[in-house]
Amino acid sequence: MIRDPDTLQAFVSQLRRFVEERLIPREAEVAETDRIPPDIVSEMREMGLFGMSIPEDFGGLGLTMEEEVTVAFEFGRTSPAFRSLVGTNNGIGSQGIVIDGTPEQKAYYLPRLASGEIVGSFALTEPDVGSDAGSLRTNARRVDGGYVINGTKRYITNAPHAGLFTVFARTDPDSKHAGGVSAFLVDGGTPGLKIGKIDKKMGQKGAHTADVIFEDCFVPESALLGGRENVGFKTAMKVLDRGRLHIGAVCVGVAYRLIEESLRYAMDRKQFGQPISEFQLVQAMLADSRTEAYAGKAMVLETARRKDLGENVATDAACCKLFCSEMVGRVADRAVQIHGGAGYIAEYAVERFYRDVRLFRIYEGTSQIQQLVIARNMVKEARA
Amino acid sequence: MKILVPVKRVVDYNVKIRVRPDGSGVELANVKMSMNPFDEIAVEEAIRLKEKGKATEIVAVSIGPAQSAETIRTALAMGADRGILVRTDQTVEPLAVAKILKAIIANENPGLVIMGKQAIDDDANQTGQMLGALIGWAQGTFASKVELGEGTVDVTREVDGGLQTVSLKLPAIVTTDLRLNEPRYASLPNIMKAKKKPLDETSAEALGVDLSPRLKVIKTAEPPVRQAGVKVGSIADLVAKLKNEAGVL
């Protein structure tokens, strides 16, 4: 936890330079080779980027939510693939342990996640299970000394690199709802755990997802997250607010980058004897994008501050995720439009970002799921 | 061995410099300030020597207003061990800086001073040389490579027409050129640790140095806006213009 504006500012300006000087020049290479260069990975480790949200007692930085989103605004200014590599360690890949882990689980895994020695992965989604996590098929059968896990997980972010999987599996075969689900901490390389082929995605090249297959995968009793059965789904729900605010902040960062790219292009590109930034219809697009990005930034910061004060921000975190992910979609669309023909050419960053940002409206809860969460909470509060 | 690294707080290299309307200098209000990039290279070089076990302590010094402490903190976050701020709100010329550094060297007894060859604000490129003259140490300026030996340091210098390597007896002064190294980024854990590293404050008076300027700035002006060129119709035209108008042939 920094809780000191000077130190936070010092870090944010270092990160800004790192993004500017090291990451942005490598974006095209990452997209082309579909991998993050190892030298960049080790620099990200050295800067402490894997452990931002892990408590200081466990070797992380213990950033407050406000500090984390401030960092994400900066980190968002480059390809989402870079952030994705550290994203799970700071979010769903570690927060389950931070919130509900036993002291032994925390002491064993958190320092490794914080340093980036291992990458954490969150294995909830299945071929037939997305947001309806209650209908989970993967099961964990109790055996002598532990559990045997069977099932398939899909689109698991960072699975090909993960040293730790937080796996959600049904421990109560009779239950048909979320209550019968438990979370397990499964080490990468455990016999019976297989990683599928890397998925071919529309964008975010360099960030990898894959199937994770469990075939009679034995894990010891100590792998049960928090040492308690049938509370796994509750754990999953607890990490969501943080993740939604984080994604909202990343969307804001990408939006500002797209606006910078658009403005630079518009001031440079001449038509009819003047830069296209002088034309009012182009100005309207720039102004709309800037306004929306600012609105997103303001709501993310406000919600993050309130979360740090201990308020329940479940509804507003969903609002942030919904608005910011849709907002950056519109900003990316305008960025391509402002670039004209050039915006459709892969040489320009906006073409890549246009595809990259599409995912933001889908993962960590689709826009439609956010709408449901928001409206249901509204009704619930009105009834209470 | 102790290494002394002077670091200067200057306008950030990304900022577009604007001249004050009255021509008295450049606008500094609400302008982002950072460590002089050549000084960052100096800090990095010192840290590398320490990492190789060839130096034991790195002391970062800055001369300037209270905010120069931030610049020292940046050096500490990169890996320097402690800082000394010589606090003053006056304009400090290279000669005054060299005198202050001389006084600090008398207190600290470093085996090596590594500093930027120049600061990107006034581009004076004088302090290292003046310091060398004042204390009578050997100097290796514009370093692109520094090799520490036993009681000596070999400095490869970027000079007009190529590279020159000089072997200096320690203690010595090295000023850094751009290609010496690529400075590291300070990590957040190190930025937080830097808060706890010692940072002493002193003043020019305490060190017995008179800061009053020896130079007078008469005028500061923006560089003239570049004029549009002309197209010539033929090579003969070009030669005629070069001969008669430009006077270069």
From TrEMBL, chain A:
It comes from the Bacteria. It holds the Pfam family Acyl-CoA_dh_1. Transmembrane segments: none annotated. Keywords: Branched-chain amino acid catabolism, FAD, Flavoprotein, Oxidoreductase. Residues 6-117 form the Acyl-CoA dehydrogenase/oxidase N-terminal domain. Gene3D superfamilies: Acyl-CoA dehydrogenase/oxidase, N-terminal domain (1.10.540.10), Butyryl-CoA Dehydrogenase, subunit A, domain 2 (2.40.110.10), Butyryl-CoA Dehydrogenase, subunit A, domain 3 (1.20.140.10). One of its GO terms (molecular function) is acyl-CoA dehydrogenase activity. InterPro entries: Acyl-CoA_DH_CS (IPR006089), Acyl-CoA_Oxase/DH_mid-dom (IPR006091), Acyl-CoA_Oxase/DH_mid-dom_sf (IPR046373), AcylCo_DH-like_C (IPR036250), AcylCo_DH/oxidase_C (IPR009075), AcylCoA_DH/ox_N (IPR013786), AcylCoA_DH/ox_N_sf (IPR037069), AcylCoA_DH/oxidase_NM_dom_sf (IPR009100). Pathway: Amino-acid degradation; L-valine degradation. PANTHER family: ACYL-COA DEHYDROGENASE (PTHR43884). Belongs to the acyl-CoA dehydrogenase family. This is Acyl-CoA dehydrogenase. It comes from Salinarimonas soli.
From TrEMBL, chain B:
GO terms for molecular function: electron transfer activity. The keyword Transport applies. Keywords: Electron transport, Transport. Coiled coil: none annotated. The keyword Transport applies. Pfam families: ETF. Residues 23-211 form the Electron transfer flavoprotein alpha/beta-subunit N-terminal domain. PROSITE patterns: ETF_BETA. GO terms for biological process: carboxylic acid catabolic process. Its cofactor is AMP. CDD domains: ETF_beta (cd01714). Belongs to the ETF beta-subunit/FixA family. Heterodimer of an alpha and a beta subunit. PANTHER family: ELECTRON TRANSFER FLAVOPROTEIN BETA-SUBUNIT (PTHR21294), ELECTRON TRANSFER FLAVOPROTEIN SUBUNIT BETA (PTHR21294:SF8). The electron transfer flavoprotein serves as a specific electron acceptor for other dehydrogenases. It transfers the electrons to the main respiratory chain via ETF-ubiquinone oxidoreductase (ETF dehydrogenase). This is Electron transfer flavoprotein subunit beta. It comes from Salinarimonas soli.
